[in-house]
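Retro notes
What went well: the complex prediction finally ran end to end.
Inputs used:
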Amino acid sequence: MNRDTRLSDVLHVLLHLDQAKELLTSDVLARSMGTNPAVFRRTMAGLRKAGLVRSEKGHGGGWQLARPLSEITLFEVYEALGRPNLFAIGNRSEHTECLVEKNVNAVVVDTMAEASTLFAKRFGEITLDQIAPRHPVSASVHTHK
Amino acid sequence: MNRDTRLSDVLHVLLHLDQAKELLTSDVLARSMGTNPAVFRRTMAGLRKAGLVRSEKGHGGGWQLARPLSEITLFEVYEALGRPNLFAIGNRSEHTECLVEKNVNAVVVDTMAEASTLFAKRFGEITLDQIAPRHPVSASVHTHK
DNA sequence: AACACATGTAACAGTCGGAGATACATATAC
DNA sequence: GTATATGTATCTCCGACTGTTACATGTGTT
């Protein structure tokens, strides 16, 4: 399956936004993310609704952080993306008459729930400033390729 | 993304195999799994190679357990399937020059590794007899729909 | 007002991996 | 030899993220 890279993509962008003094355009940020502006805006829409970033239209417009990195947890970012599915595995049918299948489903679901809790815990503990490089090497946004 | 249901499918089948006195055919087992014989055989091929089950060709042939449920862990089954990918999320590129991206990738990868360890631990602790219903309600294999 | 610039979003094609389906070779019991 | 079952190759189907194009909306400049 194709890996859903939105979380890591968006984190990357947020850290770059923090290093920037002015607004950065979708065009520039999409390039740093390795994709195109439309995909970028689609992905960032949730973060804007969640109040993590602001965007300005028109001449001189672009994107900026709405809060300092220290006040944004990784979990909030994950939620703002719409809590995308974490797992590639699962049960064929959630509701079944078969007792055997019920037991199997329970084991798989329980383990996934545990893992899910672990994700939530770790992500909730980490604020974005903890991920930012201590001594920013460059204030410029790089481009891919 | 489509959920990979092979693990739960196969567990389901193994528990039914334990309840059966004789060999069960791919046709019967595929029906109980809710799929068709070819998919079933493709999925079970790994378990046969791993020595968890045996299969006999020809008239009166079919499948049987090669070991008692108490000597098969959930983790062994997972391995026999070829350790299918557990997660739907990931990083866009594993190797990058960007320091920011490196940090982000590390956080995501580390958390996934932790979750992966949790899966391995839980799965390793559980033998299949622990999932089997205590008092088998029926020795017959049900069919879907 | 006209224009350039930037975001917002809809609509549709591309991609990748599991799942479904068919065909056919191989092996075994009767 | 025939019926029965597995073993496997080869397609197509499907769903979710990704990529792309097109166009509407809003904003600053001249």
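What we learned: Residues 136-140 of chain B have pLDDT under 50 and may be disordered.
What to try next: split runs per interface for comparison.
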